[in-house]
Structure formats: structure tokens, C-alpha cells
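Quick bug: Glycosyltransferase family 2 protein output formatted oddly.
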Amino acid sequence: MYSIEIPVIHGKYLREVFESLRQQTFQDYEVIVVNSGSDEISDVIKEYGFKEIKERVKLLKARHLAHVNSRGDRALLLDETRVLRRDALEMTDKDRSDMIIVGEREVGDSFWIKLAQLDKDNIMYCNEPNSIKGFALPRLISSPLLSKTFEILRRDLGEKFDQLIFPDHELIYYVASSLSNSVNVIREELIYHYGDRTLLEIVKKYYRYGKSTKVLKSTKYEYFLNISRKKRKICKESKLLIYLLYIVRGSSFLIGRMLWDLSIFTD
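Here's what came back:
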């Protein structure tokens, strides 16, 4: 059985996500939603009859709460901005790898959405899976492997485990890949992502990500503070276009991180 584990705080696309689950051709699953948002979100969860854990927590802790309250043998790490293609669960059920990375399609036609899709295409078709270089993240992980991964992260991070927002999923992949090399890539686009449509949305998100990495200071995962680790090969379309996206993301991230570093000396 799949345990579909979803942290939620805004709920903007939650109905689309839930409808995509309801319409799956493979129906052996449960849904666990960690609601760190509003009562209105609770109403939607109840409407669909899914399990809710209502607690205001940071992202990594939310993923952990969803998992410890799950019963399935396979965990699907989903987000409130990602909907599944109708046959997504059926397609992945045929693959018994410990971790499965699937293709994604950005929803929308803005300039920045097109750049994000171009980045995804390059990741999937020009690179090999690598948790350090910033490859696409596994959405499906065997439950025992994920449990062990969380155990290690909680031990290594201590109290900081509850504070981490970004890079939550990246850390999960990094630790899980140290425990198992059973990872497969399904390049078919089984997930549709409601991503950042405007420059302002990108800047806000990656600035917030940069600030949030303060949690990793003085931990064994401090390496993840270095955004330059993402050295991806580019083989599709113009490198200049993708570099434009990387510059916007990277500069916003670094500004957020640098301002936090400066605050250490001004507080």
C-alpha cells in the first residue's frame, strides 16, 4: 500500500492534488496530510476523508510526522503544489526499487515556467541521478528506508531537525542514498507542478530558502549551504536561458543566506 504524505501550509492547489488522487487507476493507498495552515484547509481534508495531523511545524518535521503516522510499505512524498497523472501510482507500482524518481511537467506558460521546465528536461535527460549535484528528487521511497533516514537525520540534527525548512527533501535523498543504491528513474511526466510563475515568486522563495539554511550551520550537513554543489550538465536548448534561471535563484538564495550571516554580528 502507498502512504501518500503531504505537508500543507497554504492549500492553494489542494483540491487539485486531492482530485488527482481520487482519480488514480490504482487505489491501494492512504493519504496523510500534515496541516500547518488554516481551518479552511482542515475542511477540505475532511471533505475528502483523508487523515489529518494539525500542527504548526516546519517542513522536515511535517514530513516526519506524516511518515510516522503512515501504514503503507511505500511512501510517496508529495507537496501541495504537485498533482499526479491519472496512472502515476499504477506506473510506479510496477517498479520495486527502494527509490523512484519520476518526470515532472510545469503547469503554465509564463517565461519563468518555461525556464523551469527547461531545467527539468536537462536534469532528466542530460544527467545521472546524484544526490549531491542536485538531480531530481525521488518522490517514492520504501517506508523502511525512509524510517531509517529520518532516524539518522533526527540523530544528526538534534533539536535543529524540528526547525528545518530547506533543504528538507534534498537531505532525505542524500541520507537515503547512503543507505541504498536501489534508485530508478521513470522519465515519463507523472507529476504536474504548479511552480513559480513570476520573477517575484522565484526571488521570494529562494530568498526564504537561503535564510532557512542557517539551521545547517555547525552540523555535518553544512556542505548543503554551498549552492554551487549543483553542477548539472546542460544539453538542451540555450545554456544562457538556464543560466538566467540559475542566477535569479542563486542570487536570491545567497542574499537570504548572507543577510542571516550578517544578522549574527548585528544582533
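Actually, after a second look the formatting is fine. The two ends are 50 Å apart (CA to CA). Closing.
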